[in-house]
Structure formats: C-alpha cells, structure tokens
Amino acid sequence: MTKSRHVCADREDAAGYDDKTCFQELAMRPYRSAVQAAALLLTALSLAACGGGGPSSSPTSAVAGGKGIAVGEPAPGAPAREEFIAQARKADCAEQRNRLFIIDNELVLWDRAGNCADMSWNATLYRLTPGAMLCTAGDTIAGPRTTCTDERYRALLETAAANLAKDDLGLGGAHKVEVVPFIKDGTLPFAPLVQDQYSGIAQPRNVVVRDRAGLETLWNAHYLGRSPVPPLPEVDFQRSMVVGVFAGSQAAGCQSAAVATVEGDNGKVVVGYEISTLMTVAPCAQALGAPMALAVVDRYEGEVAFVDTTPEHMAFTSLDLEDNSAVATPETVVVRDAAAWNELWARHKSRSVPVLPVPQVDFNRYMVIGVFIGSRPNGCFKTTVTDVYRSGRKIHVTRVDHQPDPRAVCTQALTTPSHLIMVERSDLPVVVSSHTVT
C-alpha cells in the first residue's frame, strides 16, 4: 500500500488524478493482463487451425510418399538399425538376397530371396521397428501376394519391390534411400567373375576391390603381356564388391584356383578359397602357371578374411563297424576324452554279451568320431565312413549309407548300423555329409 501511495501521488502530481481513481486503476491491472494473454492465445490457435503462421507450420499426412506426420501420430525417431540387422542375420530363405534399406529415415524395407518352395522372395516395409510392419509382398505357393496393415503404403512398397536394382528403388529424387550394411551369419551368395590358370600377378595375394578404378588396375595387372586385354566386366560397386585370390607362380600349368565359399561370421566376411591340381589326362604345360579367381559378393565395408579351404585328407582308423548298435537313434558323436569314450562304448555295446573291451585311444593325439544312422528294417542297410578331410575351419566326414535293391534278399530283422573311427585330434567342428547308394 505504501508503494501504491507513492505511485498515486506521482500520478496525481503529473496528471491530476485523485487517490481513489488511481487506486481503482492499480487494482484492475492484473485482470486486464490476464484477459489480454487469453486473447493472444485464442488468436494464435485460430491462426494455426486456419493454416496461418507460414508454410512450415502446416501438418502433413503420412501418406505413401509423404515425409510428414499425420495429426495425432508421435514424432518419428531413428530406425532401430540393430534390431533390423539382428532379424535379417537370422533369416531363412535369404541365400540369394538379404538387404535392408532406410527410406527418408522413417521407413525400413527388408528385401530377401532364397531357395524355398514358399516365399522364395519377400519385400517387407516397416516403420521404425521390426514390430511395426506396414506392408509385405512375396511369392507364395498360391502366387505373388501383397498385404498391408496400412493401405497408404501399398503403392510405395510395390514400386520399391519392382525396382530393387535401382539406387532410389524407383521412388524418385524426392526420397532418400540408404542401404544398411550388414553381414548375415552363414553362407553368403557370390557369383564367379573370372577364373584363370595364368596371371600376370606372380606373387600370392588376396584382394578386395570396392571401386571401378581399383578393378581396372587389377585387371590390367592380371592380363599383363596378353593382347588383346578382355573388356573390363561391369560391376555395380554401389551394391557389390570383388574378392579374389592369386596363388602366385606355380611349377606347372595344371594348378587351379577357385573362390569356394563366402560366409558371414560375427560381423565379418570370410572368403574360402581352394588351390588344387586339375585332374586331366593331358600332360600339364611346362610353363609356370599362376592360377587366380575373382568373384562378386554383396558390398561390405567391414573386415574381409581369407581362409584356405583346399581339402586336406586325413587318415583314419576304423574302431568298430557294427550293424547292431544299441544307439537306436540317428546321431553323430565326437569324443575327445577317455571318460566320454568309455561312456559311449558302454552305450553302444550294451546289447553285447559279454561287452567287448574298450579300444585304447590316445586322446592327446587322436579323437573318436561315431556315426549312427538309427533303426533300419532289415539287414541290408549299412553305413560306412569313407573320407575325412580338413577344409577351412571344419573337419568334414563323408558317410555312405547303403540301402537294398528292391530285389535283394535281406535278413528280416531290425538293425542299427554304425561306424566308429579314430582320427587325428582337432578342436575344429565336425560336419558329416551322407550319400545314399543302392
């Protein structure tokens, strides 16, 4: 009140106000301020509803091809790249293609194709997470089919699926399309580019080429001294890269190089190559050879490792070839210690009376591999391990299963064929492949 009196005294001196009028005016000031603020807020809301405030303030609808947010939708964040990559790495039926694209930093397209009877190819459009699917298109047993949870995105998906070879997926310059690099664990697709027994590159080397200039330099070095030089092959380095192996000078011209496998392994590409001797009835050329091979794989900016997968055959000893094993279910067993060996032998021979003594194995130097094919209807079924070889980072075991000719006379009793072998010890994983013969 003291402050108000001073103000009113000043006003009265300046403008002839009396105290009563001045005090009434001061008392109304807070209410006038509140009314003015409310009026300003109503004006702003009216302008926004009518599109006022300039072009940038207009809300946009999230229709196919649009980049905005529909009224009521949450503001977009960044796509969950790692979640999509984890999903794609575990995908089945993706041996031929397995790619992720981010469109306008708002949508994710997953394109994959493989060797499956159903869904041999599929393209799926998502929002920011794998759980937010918008549309999916694919090849089914009943024919191609597209389904959408949001029909506004059907046209965009169908356009992209029809233009997967184009950098912009056929969507045009108004859209930003980004490829998400990743490597699927397991077998990766590759296409041979060139294989030659004679190269101008005389020193052993492995190569990864990610641009046309690099390929041209390598191409000319490989064909050094030859005329004419074959034309440089076309490679789409936006989506692919070239990997290869040069074995260097060899003593004879019967050596061959090949890219045998390409695999994804914990985020890196592993190229398996083989350097082998060609089996030919013609004599080998006496000139020095320098075998090489190049292949095209999906582009990857991360680590690329090379592994010599040339088969190295391993000698093995047969420990037991049995048609009446007590192991009645199909399985492969790898034994690397005496305790596990004693347990397996007891299980395997539990039908024998008396149980035969356990064959002695020095597990510091050897290991045991047992193959069991399970119950069979007659005595004409057999199984035999015919080959063991080391290739790359695996031990491969070849098993031949014999089945009877329909005209064969067989013992009519259930059998359980098996074969146990001893081979040089290795901590590499063991892979068994089987072949059936009559």
UniProtKB/TrEMBL annotation:
One of its GO terms (biological process) is proteolysis. GO terms for molecular function: peptidase activity. Keywords: Hydrolase, Protease. InterPro entries: PrcB_C_dom (IPR025748). This is Protease complex subunit PrcB family protein. It comes from Pseudoduganella albidiflava. It comes from the Bacteria. Residues 367-424 form the PrcB C-terminal domain.
